[in-house]
Amino acid sequence: MRPSLVRGVALLALAAGVSCASATGPMVITGFYPLKVTTTACTADTSAQVGEGLLDSSQGTGYMVGVELTNQLADNATAYQTTTDMAYVDSEVLQFHGNNGLPTPPAETVAVSGVIPPSSKLDMVVSLLTSANGTSLQESEGSLLVDVMFKGHYEDGSLWSTASETFPVQVCAGCLKLCASPTATCGLDSLGQADGRTCPSSTGG
Description:
Number of helices: 2
Largest sheet: 6 strands, mixed
Shape: elongated
């Protein structure tokens, strides 16, 4: 069965109240990467996976990370039609769980934009904690679990969503120091994360 037909069957099953785990299968989060700050931009450093984040709540209120999304659908283009499996990224849904007394920011949906051709990957720099939500963590310490899910649509108008993946962020107060001149700000006024500009206070630099 063609992937586009599988999506149609899945959507009909959901509309009928039938559970269908494959509905989110073709679009997946395949990696989290540390942020790489340069003189002009912030990019995903795809040379290394990141296990968890580190946010100094006394220095900044935002946390960003590189994310890799994969469109696993095969190209269904033929001599008579263009592909309908081009995937467009529309939003990111974030849920938070604070541990060890850390405040829990409210859930939020953030608009993002990207295009992923069939059988392709896309690296994006996205916010896991916006400055608005991060202010509730100022001067706090503890661990924050961020459940991340992306939503979007295909060329044919059908909707997709990834499964939710959890990204842990350790929140401290005063554990980072500036170790490189601030340059690009990644769209946020203040980032208190270890990202190439700041590093753990216990290290040199």
